[in-house]
Amino acid sequence: MINVERLVNNFCDLVSIDSVSRQERLMADIIKEELVKMGYNPEEDKAGEAIGGNAGNVIVKIPGTINADPILFMAHMDTVEPGHGKVPVIDGDIIKSDGRTVLGGDDLAGVACIFEAIKVIKEKNIPHGDVYAVFSIAEEEGLLGAKELDVSKIPAKYAYILDDTGPIGTAAVKAPYYNHISFVVKGKSAHAGLAPEKGINAIYAAAKAIAALPFMGRIDEDSTCNIGLINGGRARNIVPDEVTIDGEIRCIYEEKIIRYTKQIIDTIEKIVTDEGCTVKYDVKRNHNVYNISDDHPILLLMKKAAERLGIKLNLHATGGLSDTSVINNKGITAVDISIGMTNVHSTQEQIAISDMVKASSLIVEIIRANGENA
Predict the structure, then answer these.
(1) CA dist., res. 337 & res. 315, Å (int)
(2) Residue 305 pLDDT more than 90?
(3) Model pTM greater than 0.70?
């Protein structure tokens, strides 16, 4: 049913196009051109203008042939760096990069699989309700395209986001709350050689506070913490008077993330104050949790499709974030399903052709099963 040669050629063509975050213009144009060739009318929203990029999300409706619940499939069109001049290399069943860049399977494999599934349901005259597809921008920079997506124009009941790793049949059904925490620590500048005693070293105070934090990295099975950025200082011979600290906390449970966030704030406030500095902090809830029960209809539909292909479901919780978090919080029940990509965000990234075939087949069977439920 899946045209393997067409799928592989399409994927290789896509990954050969530069499409790093906020620079997806050429990719968006190619996606729209391909959809027009299929006989559909894609639209591009204004998300790019909102986030300072050069392209928007591409949205397309595949009109249904029967009266069934509309469903949505989604993949992001941007890739991480190093992502310029990507060259796919086919080695048997594996497609990999040439070692200089990422491959871009994250998430152009998702784009290619959606394309192939759309072509198959048309070629095989598979009865289906309205199918929507969204190809989002700037996912890798904080799910920015999805955040700007107007879902009021997408009346889908369920959404399957193709952006997970693991064997085909894997689905992330739970993802964490996410708090972004930032601090501005202020000390006092002075000449480092002539009068250091007149200064208050903000870098020292910040470093001491970070070292005193009660946890870092994996806190427990549900929670993680990271201080990822620290910036400050003006010159080697000036006692630094200001430092910024940027970090995050992720947790499945709200009570825990509130408690852990407070512990970090209390620790940093106490230490930097003891060192004579002042501190201001800001906490932003960037994402809320989603938690889909195993017996939810979205997963029963996926299970029915997977069983037809002899694929076993592997439902798991993830500490990562994807467009799935945004779509759930916009009111469309969504899960993140695997397309088989491995070693993502590295120059060793690769994907198996056989996995892309299975992922494309799974999309087709989800669409077919959804139509049968009408």
Answers:
(1) 9
(2) yes
(3) yes
